[in-house]
């Protein structure tokens, strides 16, 4: 990161590497401390991690159908750290398993609470990201079952988002696990679809429900151009396989219009709402579930 700091002045390479390694080690240590706090419950206000909720909207009705749970880390000195910074590190160090477990438990608890108290939340889903690194660990199914029980939500209101690489790397055992997850009524989505290398043959074999079209394709759409055709083809592929399509990273009214024309089922992005703290998400649920004018 030395390059970003100066106006062209260069830092000796070795020192640069050294500083980077120290910063990384520091972050890893801080992350370990944060994870320890989730294991020994602390009061909510001093929780190191927090789940933000970004609405997912039906393009047919304009209603919120659910939320994606996105983790945030309140670092003691650096403030809010985004997952883009610490998730890759946590994946390398093996800390991701503990983080994902905490996020799933918290997101399910939150949805259970909303569903029990607010009729408007009765049919909402929550989508949780699951890193491929620990996918298929022993006890995964039992833990998910326990999470559903303690939160009081039905499996069909939980969605797990996995990436294409998970399926490519893990073969037989991953498929067996996906089948067991599916048997609990839980929905499976392929996240960032189009950025990996899944073969169509494999896709067809998977017990999945949803393709999430990566933001990179959606944000490049300018009218009926090539990116738009890629999105259109992906939506058609999803429908051919009996799956729903969700467009990620929708930021403009023009994109919403195009996606509706292309028969995309759901959308998510800053145009509708950024990821919100739970109180703000609840306000959205209770106030105005229609996030765009269907025109
Ligand atoms: P993702 O699962 O693809 O999540 C969507 C990301 O796009 C989120 O970034 C979200 O804030 C951002 N986003 C949504 N709409 C827009 C938009 O209109 N424009 C732009 N520019 N961005 C938008 P976030 O929260 O920083 O998360 C980044 C990634 O970190 C996620 O990508 C996911 O891969 C990972 N992640 C987040 N939470 C977790 C978690 O609990 N566990 C694991 N394993 N990974 C997580
Ligand atoms: Mg996701
Ligand atoms: Mg995604
Ligand atoms: Mg993405």
From TrEMBL:
Tell me where in this chain the EAL domain is found: 24-289
Q: What's the source species for this entry?
A: Laspinema olomoucense D3b
- Highest rank taxon of the organism: Bacteria
Protein name, entry field: EAL domain-containing protein
Q: Summarize which stretch of the complete protein this chain spans.
A: 560 to 854 of 854
């Amino acid at each position: 990161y030395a390059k970003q700091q100066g106006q062209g002045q260069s830092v000796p390479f070795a020192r640069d590497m050294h500083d980077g390694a120290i910063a990384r080690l520091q972050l890893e240590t801080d992350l370990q401390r944060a994870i320890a706090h989730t294991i020994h419950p602390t009061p909510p206000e001093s929780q190191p991690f927090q789940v933000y909720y970004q609405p997912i909207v039906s393009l047919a009705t304009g209603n919120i159908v659910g939320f994606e749970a996105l983790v945030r880390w309140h670092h003691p000195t650096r403030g809010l750290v985004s997952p883009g910074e610490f998730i890759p590190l946590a994946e390398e160090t093996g800390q991701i398993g503990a983080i994902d477990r905490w996020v799933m438990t918290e997101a399910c608890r939150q949805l259970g609470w909303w569903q029990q108290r607010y009729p408007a939340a009765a049919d909402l889903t929550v989508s949780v990201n699951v890193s491929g690194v620990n996918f298929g660990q022993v006890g995964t199914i039992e833990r998910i079952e326990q999470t559903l029980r303690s939160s009081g939500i039905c499996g069909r209101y939980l969605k797990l988002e996995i990436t294409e690489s998970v399926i490519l790397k893990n073969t037989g055992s991953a498929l067996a696990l996906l089948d067991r997850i599916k048997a609990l009524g839980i929905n499976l989505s392929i996240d960032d679809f189009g950025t990996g290398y899944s073969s169509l043959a494999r896709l067809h074999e998977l017990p999945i429900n949803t393709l999430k079209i990566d933001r990179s394709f959606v944000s490049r759409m300018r009218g009926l151009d090539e990116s738009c055709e890629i999105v259109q083809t992906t939506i058609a592929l999803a429908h051919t396989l009996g799956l729903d399509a969700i467009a990620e990273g929708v930021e403009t009214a023009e994109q919403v219009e195009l996606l509706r024309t292309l028969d995309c089922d759901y959308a998510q992005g800053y145009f509708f709402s950024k990821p919100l703290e739970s109180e703000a998400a609840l306000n959205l649920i209770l106030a105005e579930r229609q996030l765009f004018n269907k025109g």
